[in-house]
Amino acid sequence: MTAQILVVDDEPTLRGLLTELLRHEGYSVRAAGDASTALAWFQAEPFDLVLTDVKMPSASGVMSEREGHDLLERIVRRSPGTPVIMITGHASIPSAVDAMRAGAADYITKPFRRDEIVKKVEAALERVRLRRAILERARADLPESLAARSPAMRPVLDMIARCAASPATVLISGPPGSGKERVARAIHAASGLPAERFVAVRCDAMHDTLYEAELFGHEKGAFTGADRARRGVFEEADGGTLLLDGIEETPLALQSKLQPAIEKRVIRRIGGTRAIPISARIIATSAGDLRQRVRDELFRADLYYCLRVVRIDLPPLRDRKEDVPELAAQFLLEIAAHQRRNLKFESGALEALQAFDFPGNIRELRGLVESLATEATDGVVTEVATRGAVSQAAGAGRLHAPVREVLKKAERDRIRLAVARHPGNLAAAARDLGVSRTTLWRRLSRYGIDAESAS
After folding, report:
1. Which homologous superfamily is 169-315 in?
2. What is the DSSP letter of 28?
3. Residue range 365-384, pLDDT digits in tens
């Protein structure tokens, strides 16, 4: 099948030369003179490769490298597996290198040789062919590993498979317990990367003062107690995948250092001066709305846009009830292997589980299955026991909802009082509450408390 190539350049002569050259090599070519036309075509029909100039005219006619970068970002976001080759003059080589860090496959400098164009196009299309082979394999393997046959999960599966064929940064969003880490592990596995090169770090579980050392590592003597050099998680994940779980909990002070590390794939250990290049796919998960946190100035906009090159939104379990029986069966098998027992569901038990909404999502389902397995003395999880457990879980949710609201109100009032007691001094208010300043900021955001008005 003939490869379809999109050429984008505002210079008619160069555009015509590239079109003629590529058609002579047997490719199907469409040529656009500006980024908006190119993007419209790209959204309307599939292209195997895009060849675009870094400098493009803006809507006002002003030449700008930003236009080429914007086109690249939109293409990568829409189709992370489509290679983009940037064309640039010698003066704009640093910009082209930045474009490669943002997802471009390669760049060519002007004036270029015809054979150079042909070789780079051939190499990029060969990578496309290999990625498509990985994509087909990933699509065949993912349903079994994720137990995701419901209509709500089909677009998720498609994006997982596409991500497996691309090194692009991925942001996975979804409610707590919806299986975000499972999706991240599926992307890693489908990519054919070594299993031991999957490194996960919980952003909400690291101590504020050790966060930077955990991420980037440190040299010997960098701070008190650093009696030897230590690699951080970025280096541990080199050649594999780094999962930043709960990225929304990252302290603001560290976000400014995390953003360039992700964008440029270069880190420096604490106390070190050597730039260490990192070859790792970055996957971040968020249980909250990062866009809202950006608007609330609790999350840096540059880090958000750096993370959301490819975005996967996971539905809650109540929207994918068709997957409950298979997920439950998987969990029971895992529990049986761990407990070295023979366990099985009685006919009707899985249907009883499927009737429940599971507000705690997959995590709650697993907990319920584990509880039922523990109580199944003869190795059979009965329908009666399952319906009783589901009824109890539903009743507990209704019973404890008012209690939770009372506790929330008490915490909210206590925070308001501490902030009012120390006007303009959140550090003192945090000490009064017995929490870190970062934790206090999170609570203020969660409860919608404005520190100045509370004072």
Report:
1. P-loop containing nucleotide triphosphate hydrolases (3.40.50.300)
2. E
3. 999 999 999 888 788 999 99
